Known about the structure:
Elements: E1 2-3, E2 7-11, E3 14-22, E4 33-39, H1 51-64, E5 68-74, H2 76-92, E6 102-107, H3 112-115, H4 127-135
Parallel strand pairs: 1-5, 5-6
Antiparallel strand pairs: 1-3, 2-3, 3-4
Amino acid sequence: xxxxxxxxxxxxxxxxxxxxxxxxxxxxxxxxxxxxxxxxxxxxxxxxxxxxxxxxxxxxxxxxxxxxxxxxxxxxxxxxxxxxxxxxxxxxxxxxxxxxxxxxxxxxxxxxxxxxxxxxxxxxxxxxxxxxxxxxxxxx
Length: 140
């Protein structure tokens, strides 16, 4: 699977970042593009880095056993985390997923202005997500 360099555009008051995807697996034949879009009036910015595209596509690549080539800029920290994520998912579901090779064309840290002070996490309401929320509130 090739995740091409993301491209950014503004259409009808919406900011869109999209990347072309080339997949070899027959079940992914119809998959040719992935995009993220927000309302330009929101005041938020959308990065043109490949990080979000890799995060979105790695479960699909693992399920199909297809290696990934990322042609856009990727965070080295994310690249390391994706390797760890694959090990965990393979330990949980060895019959359903495979650890796949990921090649990065450009590993580079995001500029400090894009990193921001925030932390992103999923919240399930379980012990782990409650601890993550608590540990980042500053009210400890």
